[in-house]
Amino acid sequence: MSRTPEPRSLSSNEVARILGVSQVTLRTWEQRYGIGASGREKNGRRRYLPGDLDRLRRMRALQVQGTRAGEAARLVLSRSAAETTVDLRRLRIAESAERLDLATLGDLVDDALGSLGVAKSWTEVVAPVLRDIGQRWAKAGDRAAMAAEWALAAAASAALDRLRAPAPARSGRGPVLFVCGPAERHDLPVKMLCAALGDDGAPAMFLGGLVPLDVLRAVCGRFAPSAVVVWSMTSPSADVRALRTLHAEGVPVRPAGPGWRGLPACGEPLPSSFVDALADLHRM
């Protein structure tokens, strides 16, 4: 009967190169937090097994996201699925985005939405990964980072399209409509906000971009919305004239997104925080 081959182990130098840290950092993590190599050679040199590398990857990913070393170690070592699952999801999604693996990204985002709900999937998983990738792109002009950001945004948007939101509760109020500026190309944050509202059982409709003003008027006349969220990520997509026209006609417009900043908009702006904006819309 053949023996199952033992998993390949790695040296400290190999692991340090994979993680982009020094060997001194690896020794520090092991001595201070107990996260290190589970194997040793006869001469005492460390050998890292696949499970060791997984834990170290999580430790590194948390630190890159701004988590202090002690807290990162606690999360890595914790047996609480509630704490470690989010970290693992971020790590796997980030790795799949770097590989431009759209199929795996779709599966991972689908699973997050189904397990965590829309709001938590966005605020704790997808948005942090997009932010980290975007910062790398902005700092170094890394084209690979730009492609990874595109891949994750595309996969997340497609996952929302597949998501079947629960039927809204009969609240006696009109739905919240979500629409983008005519030139808007970054609709994922507001699409997530709409899905999160629907996920909580509130009536919500995402209309997307390039919606003619007359069409929007007709939709408002048909559904009597409690609010019309007009999203703009950048100022060129912020249509101040259309917003003022709708406001003057009595449409309850709510400008949202950084594109409106500094512009003479009308209507009460939504809070910039996703969580605060969601709570604000629930109070309407």
Automatic annotation (TrEMBL):
The keyword DNA-binding applies. InterPro entries: DNA-bd_dom_put_sf (IPR009061), MerR-type_HTH_dom (IPR000551), MerR_fam (IPR047057), Meth_synthase_dom (IPR036594). Residues 14-78 form the HTH merR-type domain. GO terms for molecular function: DNA binding; DNA-binding transcription factor activity. It holds the Pfam family MerR_1. Keywords: DNA-binding. PROSITE patterns: HTH_MERR_2. The keyword DNA-binding applies. PANTHER family: MERR FAMILY REGULATORY PROTEIN, REDOX-CYCLING DRUG-SENSING TRANSCRIPTIONAL ACTIVATOR SOXR. This is MerR family transcriptional regulator.
